[in-house]
Amino acid sequence: MINGFKLFWTRGLDYKGTTSRREFWWGVLTNAIIMLVLLSLLFWSLFYSTQKINTFSITMLTLFSIFCLIELLPSVTLIIRRMHDIGKSGFYIFVLFIPLFGFIWYIYLVTRPSNRFNRSILP
């Protein structure tokens, strides 16, 4: 899990090459856990505090926003490398912009096994 998290950040600007299913899902899982922890702390500070807006809730909102912004580019490159691994173009990331059906198609794509034959023709 820690290795997947390291690979997510060290290859964060590398949109060429491939990413295996294992590397993809470990990166997604570790970032999802971090986001859930930050969101939980944010909601806790908003709903269970005596003051609705306090220093802790502002800090948690700021941390969550910064993490989401910093994590955006490595997430995009991770998806592009995963598409390369299954033999698709990186432009398949735009499938996510299709309402409802696009997310289902995206989940189908990222869960497919590696296509070892197309690795040699990818940039």
Summarize, please:
The protein has 123 residues and is mainly α.
Any key phrases for this structure?
mainly alpha; 123 residues; 63% helix
Description:
This protein is mainly alpha-helical. The chain has one domain. The chain is 63% helix and 0% strand. The chain is built from 4 helices and no strands. Helix 1 packs across helix 2 and helix 2 packs antiparallel against helix 3 (55-85). The longest helix is centred in the middle third of the chain and has 31 residues, at 55-85. It starts with a helix and ends in a 13-residue tail after the last helix. The model has no long low-confidence stretch (mean pLDDT 86).
Low-confidence stretches: none
Share of β-strand residues: under 5%
H and E order: HHHH
- Mean pLDDT level: 86
Number of helices: 4
Largest sheet: none
**SS class:** mainly alpha
Distance between the termini: 28 Å
Count of beta strands: 0
Shape label: elongated
Number of domains: 1
Task: Evaluate the radius of gyration.
Answer: 17 Å
Estimate percent helicity. 55-70%
